[in-house]
Amino acid sequence: xHEARPNAVDPVIRIVVKLDAGFVCISVxxxxxxxxxxxxxxxxxxxxxxxxDGMGMxxxxxxxxxxxxxxxLWVVNNVEADGHITGATFHCSLPIGEPHDLSNGGSEAPxxxxxxxxx
Length: 119
Fold this sequence. Notes:
The chain contains 2 helices and 5 strands; from the N terminus they run E-E-H-H-E-E-E. With 119 residues, it is α+β, with helices and mostly antiparallel strands. It has one domain: 2-Layer Sandwich (Heat Shock Protein 90), CATH 3.30.565.10. It has a 5-stranded antiparallel beta sheet with strand order 3-4-2-1-5. It is globular. It starts with 12 loop residues before the first strand and ends with a strand.
């Protein structure tokens, strides 16, 4: 992964929150260079870092905490129809309520809220 590009076409990082089928899904969307395939496969491994002074623990700890709460954490590149990468999106999905409550969560229509802000 690369550092944020100050000259990106749209330097805004968007956060999208959706409620769907008993889960809250949080997406953090940037307009940077994306994440290359080799890095994507290792990004959540302990002690792997793309930064020269990084410890490689941050995303691994985040994923462990999220998974301990029955959730998921993953990253995908934002790919245009022509194959051009226009950034990356980190997704976090967490269940709402207790495990027995999840069966009732699907009756509610998905709701979306988008928050934007300048860097």
